[in-house]
């Protein structure tokens, strides 16, 4: 009876209108939440460099951010499967508010380890935010799922403006505590996102969806799923690997912090801007071709970075990297949607994100030490072997006797 009451308001408006309202709110929340990730990426290594007991630990706060993302994905999936996605969204966004407040306190107290706690909560928030894309697909008709998924990701375009500008205009506001006001502002933006998400109306899990479905081991052995996970891992791993190191590399090259902030702004815009078209491209050309294009853009970003260490080289690297991440990650996410039944979606999607973010952790931990010990060029060269591996996995995952089987 309570299930019927919970589902009633969802069935009342026309389905398409409800879908649009949900996608719009999720896109707005995505835009606001992007400030969390951008602030941490723009300032995490710099604050780490100021507070860390050893310079090699400068990028540890960003690595802890990624650990928070990995640690949260499976519990968030379990909460979503039992209590609905909105409950997971509210808890995760609350962690974003808490992370901003702890970050402010850490800067005020000059506590490196407390700052790492703050970035962990920021990672929890970021992981939940990335499940917005699957929530949008859930409430759309099958033929509109790629577009709904990419429409929510497009909300991140505004994150590319909100986050860096928040850093630029607040970094010196609370003297002499550099970036203290920035993290306070990030907490306020997360609180606004919490209010936006309160209006999202998603159906509660049905009894079938709360059931077991196929074992994860069976689902995970599908070549299509393996290819999707590998491409998602490589796309996100290299984006995080290079973006973590880039602001610190710019600092080592005596380039101003404002240039790093602006470079990250264009990077985030490039990450999410293509989402206005990615869904249509997936529908027209297929997810595999879109993923392959993303891997090509990522390779181009590393190649451009190897050409020099001027501001323009860093900016071009970050922009190409953002476009590569969008095509690779959104395309891989669309491939995941092809690999599960409705009752399996929460577990399969959270497993995918757990593997993606868990693997990212290694790249994030390595980037700071590699940058300090071997330099920016070495970081760039190391991006090519994973790209080759992803291309091979994509070819294996796409055995396409496209026309012979379907034409008959």
From TrEMBL:
<keyword id="KW-0472">Membrane</keyword>
<feature type="transmembrane region" description="Helical">
    <location>
        <begin position="351"/>
        <end position="373"/>
    </location>
</feature>
<feature type="transmembrane region" description="Helical">
    <location>
        <begin position="112"/>
        <end position="136"/>
    </location>
</feature>
<dbReference type="InterPro" id="IPR036259">
    <property type="entry name" value="MFS_trans_sf"/>
</dbReference>
<feature type="transmembrane region" description="Helical">
    <location>
        <begin position="26"/>
        <end position="48"/>
    </location>
</feature>
<feature type="domain" description="Major facilitator superfamily (MFS) profile">
    <location>
        <begin position="224"/>
        <end position="408"/>
    </location>
</feature>
<dbReference type="GO" id="GO:0022857">
    <property type="term" value="F:transmembrane transporter activity"/>
</dbReference>
<feature type="transmembrane region" description="Helical">
    <location>
        <begin position="290"/>
        <end position="309"/>
    </location>
</feature>
<feature type="transmembrane region" description="Helical">
    <location>
        <begin position="225"/>
        <end position="244"/>
    </location>
</feature>
<feature type="transmembrane region" description="Helical">
    <location>
        <begin position="87"/>
        <end position="106"/>
    </location>
</feature>
<keyword id="KW-1133">Transmembrane helix</keyword>
<feature type="transmembrane region" description="Helical">
    <location>
        <begin position="379"/>
        <end position="397"/>
    </location>
</feature>
<feature type="transmembrane region" description="Helical">
    <location>
        <begin position="148"/>
        <end position="171"/>
    </location>
</feature>
<keyword id="KW-0812">Transmembrane</keyword>
<feature type="transmembrane region" description="Helical">
    <location>
        <begin position="315"/>
        <end position="339"/>
    </location>
</feature>
<dbReference type="Pfam" id="PF07690">
    <property type="entry name" value="MFS_1"/>
</dbReference>
<feature type="transmembrane region" description="Helical">
    <location>
        <begin position="60"/>
        <end position="80"/>
    </location>
</feature>
<feature type="transmembrane region" description="Helical">
    <location>
        <begin position="183"/>
        <end position="204"/>
    </location>
</feature>
<protein>
    <submittedName>
        <fullName>MFS transporter</fullName>
    </submittedName>
</protein>
<dbReference type="InterPro" id="IPR020846">
    <property type="entry name" value="MFS_dom"/>
</dbReference>
<dbReference type="InterPro" id="IPR011701">
    <property type="entry name" value="MFS"/>
</dbReference>
<feature type="transmembrane region" description="Helical">
    <location>
        <begin position="264"/>
        <end position="283"/>
    </location>
</feature>
